From TrEMBL, chains A, B:
<dbReference type="GO" id="GO:0003700">
    <property type="term" value="F:DNA-binding transcription factor activity"/>
</dbReference>
<keyword id="KW-0805">Transcription regulation</keyword>
<protein>
    <submittedName>
        <fullName>HTH-type transcriptional regulator LutR</fullName>
    </submittedName>
</protein>
<dbReference type="Pfam" id="PF07729">
    <property type="entry name" value="FCD"/>
</dbReference>
<feature type="domain" description="HTH gntR-type">
    <location>
        <begin position="1"/>
        <end position="53"/>
    </location>
</feature>
<dbReference type="InterPro" id="IPR000524">
    <property type="entry name" value="Tscrpt_reg_HTH_GntR"/>
</dbReference>
<keyword id="KW-0804">Transcription</keyword>
<dbReference type="InterPro" id="IPR036388">
    <property type="entry name" value="WH-like_DNA-bd_sf"/>
</dbReference>
<dbReference type="InterPro" id="IPR011711">
    <property type="entry name" value="GntR_C"/>
</dbReference>
<dbReference type="Pfam" id="PF00392">
    <property type="entry name" value="GntR"/>
</dbReference>
<dbReference type="InterPro" id="IPR008920">
    <property type="entry name" value="TF_FadR/GntR_C"/>
</dbReference>
<keyword id="KW-0238">DNA-binding</keyword>
<dbReference type="GO" id="GO:0003677">
    <property type="term" value="F:DNA binding"/>
</dbReference>
<dbReference type="InterPro" id="IPR036390">
    <property type="entry name" value="WH_DNA-bd_sf"/>
</dbReference>
DNA sequence: CAGATGACGATTGTTAACAATCTTTGTCAA
DNA sequence: TTGACAAAGATTGTTAACAATCGTCATCTG
């Protein structure tokens, strides 16, 4: 969930085994699950490779989010009384703290997590799972195509969206989120893809 | 994809092995994938059981579909020129044929597939995968809570939705789909759950 | 007789050796 | 030098035996 592995990196079973100190069975099981989530790609008899989304896939991810998230925040804004949003308020604080200290990695992670928690706030397991998958993929894409500076979400758009939700302004919340997604997408440079550096442990936390 | 297994049925590895004539590895891999899709539930050291959605899960599934599908068909209706809808037209024909011959199993299967193909028509891999998962879960639920007669989708609502799409009527298409989902949901009897009969091969087609 | 206890059988989880496939490297010939 | 070909090495896929866990049933005790 942390985006720290160069796309197309080969994940050899043997290496993963000794890295995590587990048997090959566990590794293979984890790889299968990751591939079912589209995070890695399993090539028969050739090994596992970190997914490398292309331009078209990036477009699809944002199209899917543009389809789901606006109605989602609209719904949240309509029924935000029965819903616990303290988690999100705390989350905004975390984001600000990370931004204050300029911890780029943490900022990116938290930026994605905001949207995931937004979905989680609906209390709907399926909506949550769908958004988590889309956010994960978005992180991959931002890591690939994002320019170094504004790779994270623009400063306090999250805060504004949350404010619109708690103040029961569905239209405003929806509009802010649409703008937000557009900002993220337009912050990408679809041509020159840059390689992030390695760091195994992060993405494979789920043994 | 066929809903032919009583929920809570235990899927023993040994039995699956000899049923499909494959090694235990293949079976375990398939079970893991099915569990990641929420179709079965893996209990540690206790085996795999067909998922048994409860009232609350059923509610969540329909809420999720209600969130996604209306914007989806609206979008399809707006941009249906650049999109190939012949698959869906053919599909309607298949549905009618099955309905004419009163093949209940086939009707249910095709009814779900209509919605999946609707998502596929967007050409968006992620939207397709999300809808397929939701439709699969819906099939489980309809099989559990659906009364025997109207378990399938009402007669030609699919046809009307498709017509609205091809005639570029986003609002109409959206409204028809909402009604359609409501019809399905209100056709469920959330109290008395009835047991479908067994039939292994269907759901596990993906070895 | 009710409940607890322990052994047995069945099922799942794991490991390690084996087989199959792919990649690389080295050799040879054009 | 370049290309094809073949052998060696490395990696993945599979199988089968072993270990661990769970459920059941019989037995024992209060």
């Amino acid at each position: 969930m942390e985006q720290r592995l160069a796309p197309n990196t080969k994940l050899s079973e043997a290496r993963l085994c000794e890295t995590f100190g587990v048997g090959r069975m566990r590794v293979r099981r984890a790889l299968l699950l990751l591939s079912s989530q589209g995070i890695i790609e399993l090539q028969s008899n050739r090994g596992a490779y970190v997914a490398c989304p292309d331009k078209s896939e990036a477009h699809d991810v944002f199209a899917a989010r543009m389809l789901i998230e606006p109605p989602l925040v609209r719904q949240l804004a309509q029924s935000s009384d029965e819903i616990d949003l303290t988690v999100l308020i705390d989350h905004i604080a975390l984001e600000n703290a990370a931004r204050a200290q300029n911890e780029r990695t943490e900022i990116i992670r938290l930026s994605g997590e905001f949207h995931t928690k937004l979905a989680q706030a609906t209390g709907n397991k399926f909506i949550f799972r769908m958004m988590r998958e889309l956010v994960t993929r978005t992180s991959l894409i931002v890591g690939l195509f994002g320019s170094s500076e504004n790779a994270s979400c623009p400063d306090d758009e999250h805060s504004n969206i949350l404010k619109a939700i708690v103040s029961h302004s569905p239209e405003l919340a929806e509009q802010l989120l649409i703008s937000h997604l557009n900002h993220i997408q337009s912050g990408l440079d679809m041509e020159a893809r840059q390689e992030p550096q390695d760091d195994l442990a992060a993405i494979l936390g789920s043994d």
